[in-house]
Amino acid sequence: MPKELWKGNEAIAEAAVRAGLEAYFGYPITPQTEILEYLSRRMPELGRTFVQAESELGAINMVYGAACTGVRVMSSSSSPGVSLMMEGISYIAGTEVPTVLVNVMRGGPGLGNIAPAQGDYNQAVHGGGHGDYQPIVLAPASVQEAIDLTVLSFDLAEKYRAICMVILDGCVGQMMEPAEMPEMRPVHRENWDWNTDAKMGKRERRILSSIYIDPVDEEQTNLRLLNRWKTIQANEVRYKEYFLDDAEIVIVGFGTAGRVSLSAVRTAREQGIKVGLLRPITVSPFPYEALDQLSGRVDAFLVTEMNSGQMLEDVRLAVKGRVPVEFYGRLGGVVPFPDEILSEIHRMAKVKLGTDVHPRDAWLERMAHIV
Amino acid sequence: MQKEIIISGFGGQGVLFAGQVIAYAAMDSGKQVTWIPSYGPEMRGGTANCTVVIADHEIGSPLVKNPPLVIALNLPSFDKYEPLMQVGGTLIVNQSMVDRGAKRDDISVILVPCNEIAEEIGDKKLMNMVAVGALLSALPEVSLKDVEKALEGHLPARHKHLLPKNYEALKRGYENAQKELEKVPA
């Protein structure tokens, strides 16, 4: 397929269609509305299901119902809308039905604003809904990656009967980049042994539910989910490396914060500073092992995020205090410019860094002079 | 190679499309490119802008703080971006919509009467293409031919009859800026 100029949100919508999306349920919210708008035209055109629900609660429960039938189904929203969906997400996790959910994150908490942000990292990666479950979370940084990861999200969700979230910020959703679409896959329903498909009387009854009244059954369910998660952790970690071979300082950033960091890394390299970038593509499962290995040979890490240091804690878990971990973030919908990250690199290359102060506290002090 | 361009003006002046045309031209000539709009409430009246980054490597930041190239289609955009420009940059100003000249002497400010030129061609909506043509005089990485081909390749079929006038607008903008550039001391 030739490259076309695609807007992130529309690219996600078309990629989902080509991956065999049979049903979409959603509710408009900036900055993801183009996904819904695009599918409102495209899905009926193909004889597939599109419903603009009465609310995000309605949408996620329609997704839940459709997922139980084994079709490829998704919803998309932005931060406040995703918060509204959390109950349904937990039910979906508890029922073990494959579901894709796209979150084009905006500034928060609360109603916040519509500017790009990454403040929903913890909500996506470390839960959000109640109970013991782990979603797979993919974080594209470009339009091409948004396409590829949307397609992948359906495969992963089905493979592990799990929720797969694609989290991006408003930048990736709104920007246009040259990108290549995959071939249209035919709609294909697997012959699962778990889905409900109106074959009453023709085979043994299947019941899908998240209710396990007997705690012993619920414990078994939780253990099953956990064991599945161990397999996901072992097989599905993805990240991209830039200039890591001889790097002394390594930046860790995902999505837009990651690509803004790449600009800073390039400039620093031109200035002779040995800095590299590790950009997690799966933020859940998180690339602990890659960071663990890097900790043995680099001088320091810099975590960049468009939040107050949420992934920072996961990086610290991986690094285990062996080398200093520093942090630079912008909040509330402010996107950092490369020069801000470049000055962090300059500072780190110049001063002796310690591990006794929490990087967030040190950053907060520096921020007082920046904003 | 990396070049960053900001195009700014009132909503309705064709700011976003002007950026897309440049992005298409860059893409078709094999370059990496990003286009990102301001997507806030300013879309509904007020100012709109977009940022286009062209490079021959994987593009990092899609946004730029100190752009080397700017098109300002109105006075608020001129006021906003003149102080932010990179030293040595080129600022294309739609002279038809401003009542002042340049304040800085370390950048090239090129005043082009985009509205009047567009009206001479016969369609005032072509004003954005006049400005794009003018910008190309400072963007050797993208040629006039590249942009013409991009318009031909990506303009919806129902607008194809407008191509000759679009070409004319691009050319007039380009020539006008070339003349102005010769006047600007190095």
The largest sheet of chain B, given as strand count, sense and whether it forms a barrel, is: 6 strands, mixed
Chain pair forming the biggest interface: A-B, 26 and 22 residues
Which outline of chain B best applies? globular
What's the overall average pLDDT of chain A, rounded? 96
Given the structure, what is the number of helices of chain A? 14
Q: Taking strands numbered 1, 2, ... along the chain, how are they ordered across the largest sheet of chain A? A: 3-2-4-5-7-6-12
Uncertain residue segments of chain B: none
Structural class of chain B: alpha/beta
Instruction: Please give the oligomerization state of what you see.
Output: heterodimer
The coarse silhouette of chain A is: globular
**Rg value of chain A:** 21 Å
Give the count of structural domains of chain A: 2
How would you summarize the topology of this molecule?
The complex is a heterodimer of chains A (371) and B (186).
Chain A (H helix, E strand, L loop, with lengths): L3 E4 H11 L4 E4 L6 H13 L3 E4 L3 H13 L4 E5 L1 H6 L1 H10 L3 E7 L15 H5 L10 E3 L4 H18 L2 E7 H5 L1 E4 L35 H21 L3 E4 L6 E4 L2 H16 L4 E6 L1 E3 L3 H8 L4 E6 L5 H9 L5 E5 L8 H13 L8 H12 L1
Parallel strand pairs in A: 2-3, 2-4, 4-5, 5-7, 6-7, 10-11, 10-13, 13-14
Antiparallel strand pairs in A: 1-8, 6-12, 9-11
Helix pairs in contact in A: 1-2, 1-7, 3-5, 10-13, 11-12
Chain B lengths: L1 E9 L4 H14 L3 E6 L9 E9 L13 E4 L2 H7 L8 E5 L13 E5 L1 H8 L5 H10 L7 H11 L8 H21 L3
Helix pairs in contact in B: 1-4, 1-5, 3-4, 3-6, 4-6, 5-6
